[in-house]
């Protein structure tokens, strides 16, 4: 009942939530990568979306700081993997080509993580292959990415998002070995359905995230769906925010994943800033209506969205957050600060999530 009322009238229901002074962390993850789905193997086309998104989010930084009264931080996940090395001569192109931009984001207090796609060039097929079926190749892609990050930025990487939301138990072992503190790949509720170009050549299977937790946790090494024992000190999974989007007439079109779930089961979608405002607002309101002890939001986007027709939609969704009745509680912050707030013992959470 609370959820339906909040979805219909967020301003009415928000009055009760305002009495809780605890900040609500909001993490905006930007995957920084080429503007096209797959890397061009010659010509080194510029990453126009990267520069455009930095400028766009700089504009929104000041607007949201004025609305929230808190510093605003973004989370940038820089694409570094063998395919980038193939097309650009170095896996660290995002930093090597624009070092001042990475320094600018660091000085602003933003988080810089790593984004890795496990794709390889198929010489016989003359096309890129999404190769999740070869665990050695997956581990190699991660090794290349982490080494490139360390060499380019002079520090170890502790934040990760794997492309095509791929994550399994074997990959988690590699991620833990590489020292990842927080992985933001998982999108709970989503079925084993491919993202991107459905005609991509692929190996392996896609994870079925329908039964996964929707709150931060350290997973068991033998089953990602199961939280590990309290003494476990491995990688944290900070799930991307998702919500059910099929039981409303407000949607302009069927959601991407609806067909793969089955009749009678709600289709879930991630909180993508490029999604229509109807979908974006619905997911936000669902999460805020769940009455969690420590609510948080993790939204995602690709940098290329700002140059491929979604800029206005992104701005509309950020404006929804800026004018939301709970905006005074929103803290646009880093994954580390969000994890700290979401996992703090009751009554011990930080007063602010601005670091």
**Superfamily (CATH H level) name:** Glycoside hydrolase/deacetylase
Helices and strands, in order, run as HHEHEHHHEEEHEHEEEEEHEHEH
Overall strand count? 13
Task: Give the name of the CATH architecture.
Answer: Alpha-Beta Barrel
Major β-sheet profile? 8 strands, parallel
Work out the radius of gyration.
20 Å
Count of helical segments? 11
**C-alpha end-to-end distance:** 35 Å
Structural class comes to alpha/beta
The fraction of residues assigned to DSSP E strands is 15-25%
* Portion in helices: 25-40%
**What is the C-level CATH assignment?**
Alpha Beta
Count of discrete structural domains: 1
The fold-level CATH name is: TIM Barrel
Unreliable stretches? 248-263, 349-355
Descriptive report:
The model is unreliable at 248-263 and 349-355 (pLDDT under 50). The protein is 33% helix and 15% strand. The protein is built from eleven helices and 13 strands. Strands 1, 2, 3, 6, 7, 9, 12 and 13 form an eight-stranded parallel sheet that branches. The chain has one domain (2-343): TIM Barrel.
Structure in a nutshell:
33% of the residues lie in helices and 15% in strands. The chain has 355 residues and is an alpha/beta fold. The chain has a single domain, classed as Glycoside hydrolase/deacetylase (TIM Barrel, Alpha-Beta Barrel), CATH 3.20.20.370.
């Amino acid at each position: 009942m609370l959820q339906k009322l909040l979805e219909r009238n967020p301003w009415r229901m928000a009055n009760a939530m305002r009495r809780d002074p605890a900040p609500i962390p909001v993490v905006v993850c930007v995957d920084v990568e080429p503007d096209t789905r797959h890397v061009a193997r010659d010509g080194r086309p510029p990453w126009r979306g990267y520069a455009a998104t930095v400028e766009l989010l700089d504009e929104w930084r000041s607007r949201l700081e004025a609305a929230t009264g808190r510093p605003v931080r973004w989370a940038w996940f820089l694409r570094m993997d063998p395919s980038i090395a193939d097309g650009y001569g170095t896996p660290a192109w995002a930093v090597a080509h624009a070092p001042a931009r990475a320094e600018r984001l660091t000085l602003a207090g933003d988080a810089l993580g790593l984004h890795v796609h496990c794709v390889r060039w198929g010489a016989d097929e003359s096309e890129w292959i999404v190769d999740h079926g070869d665990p050695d190749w997956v581990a190699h892609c991660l090794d290349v990415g982490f080494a490139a990050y360390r060499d380019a930025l002079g520090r170890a990487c502790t934040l990760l998002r794997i492309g095509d939301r791929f994550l399994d138990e074997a990959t988690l072992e590699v991620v833990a070995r590489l020292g990842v503190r927080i992985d933001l790949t998982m999108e709970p509720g989503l079925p084993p359905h491919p993202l991107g170009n459905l005609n991509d050549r692929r190996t392996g299977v896609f994870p079925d995230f329908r039964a996964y937790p929707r709150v931060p946790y350290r997973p068991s090494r033998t089953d990602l769906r199961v939280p590990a024992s309290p003494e476990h000190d491995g990688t944290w999974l900070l799930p991307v925010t998702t919500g059910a989007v099929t039981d409303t007439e407000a949607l302009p079109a069927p959601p991407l994943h609806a067909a793969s779930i089955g009749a009678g089961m709600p289709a879930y979608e991630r909180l993508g800033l490029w999604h229509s405002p109807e979908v974006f607002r619905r997911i936000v309101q669902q999460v805020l209506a769940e009455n969690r002890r420590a609510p948080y939001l993790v939204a995602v986007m690709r940098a290329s969205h700002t140059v491929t027709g979604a800029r206005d939609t992104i701005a509309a969704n950020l404006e929804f957050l800026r004018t939301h009745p709970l905006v005074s509680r929103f803290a646009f912050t880093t994954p580390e600060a969000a994890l700290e707030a979401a996992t703090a013992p009751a009554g011990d959470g930080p007063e602010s999530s601005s670091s």
